[in-house]
Amino acid sequence: MHEAALQLLKRTMDDQLARTEHPSDFPALPPIPAGRYTDPRFAALEKEGLWDRAWLLAGIASELPEPGSYRLFQHLDRSVILSRGKDDRIRAFHNTCRHRGSPLLLEEEGRASRFVCPYHSWSYALDGALKAVPSQHDFACFEKSDHGLAEVRCETYRGFIFINFDDAAGPLREFLGEFVALTEGYPLERMVVKDRFTVEMDCNWKIAYHNFLEIYHVNTVHPKTLAPHLDSRSFVIALYDGGHMRFGTRKKGGVSLFEKPPVQPDDIADVFLENTVALPTFPNTFFSLDPVGFNLQCFWPAGPNKSIMEVRQMGWATDDDADREYWGEMRKATEHILSEDLCLFSSIQQSLRNGALTSIVTGYQERALYWFEEEIDRQIGPDRVPRDLQVQPRLGSYSTPHSE
Ligand code: FES
Ligand SMILES: [Fe+2]
């Protein structure tokens, strides 16, 4: 993190600890319409405005350790192959054969020297080129070079693999914006996936994501697990262009929520030792940079009323019994804490769906989730969002570096 960002974090934390009410210039936030979480019209706008256009975190480079390693990305009604080529480059392809559309790969992960279609055995090189067509003489005027795999935009930043379904999208680094400077001093590129799991949720993806955009709920929902470790009065939020955010919370006693793992880098910047620094990255990713490692959470829609939370437990490369035992315990602790949150989501969704609640209310401590909803409309194009589903932009003057 740069010096200016560190100073901002420290100064705003001191301000938060001293405050007794919301800042006098903080605007009243209008109610957010319930239809944004239930209406298929809004889900369709999100598909066009977000999922088909934004850079999406799809994988981790260390999950593809050698040439030929692959993993499938299977969200958003899509199946995409992420694979490492013979030239070590990571590429993404639609998992669909150019003959008649069979999936090429059926296993979620593995290793292949070629992708061979399970239907009629067309085979493709790791760079997507079509290499062999059985009985090719039966296809008139057929050029193999016209039938390579359809590639998906794919760029990697410090070991994090992003894909984008929009061929006209700008470069990943531009999209990441402040994320680049904020992660300095934290060795992202050395991280490995210790464990992974998914949770199916009976709620809109944004209802689940909102939960991670505030700590207003922590004292009520996590009194014995998270609350004793976080000084929630110190919670600070920086809102950045593009919908990204940086949160900071001072750790009580300056210690991590979780015990130290057997292996931990000794070159992590002090700011990450003393504070929990979380980086909600637009549109659907959340993680907190802790020296122990972190849960990398991605939230995916599965229809207006259903969603998937994908959790990767990220840690440091080593492989011994103590480390495995540590991450086994981490998984249990994580699932326990998440279960404290998750038990409420389906009932919230039910109230939004059945008309018991026509809008939701947000206060100063929840300004990040209002900013997130504003950004969704900006990405869709505010004029395209039906009037009854819009959020009114209010927080422009609250984005960083203007003020906080
Ligand atoms: S669909 Fe793949 S070879 Fe026929
Ligand atoms: Fe929570």
Short précis:
The chain has helices at 3-18, 40-51, 172-176, 179-182, 205-210, 218-221, 270-274, 321-342, 345-353, 367-380; strands spanning 32-33, 56-60, 69-73, 80-84, 90-94, 109-111, 115-116, 123-124, 130-132, 151-157, 160-164, 191-201, 230-239, 245-251, 275-278, 285-286, 288-289, 294-301, 307-316, 359-360. It is an alpha+beta fold. The protein has 2 domains: 3-54 and 190-398, Naphthalene 1,2-dioxygenase Alpha Subunit, Chain A, domain 1; 56-159, Rieske Iron-sulfur Protein (3-layer Sandwich).
Q: What are its keywords?
A:
404 residues, alpha+beta, Rieske Iron-sulfur Protein, 4-stranded antiparallel sheet, 10 helices, binds FE2/S2 (inorganic) cluster, binds fe (ii) ion
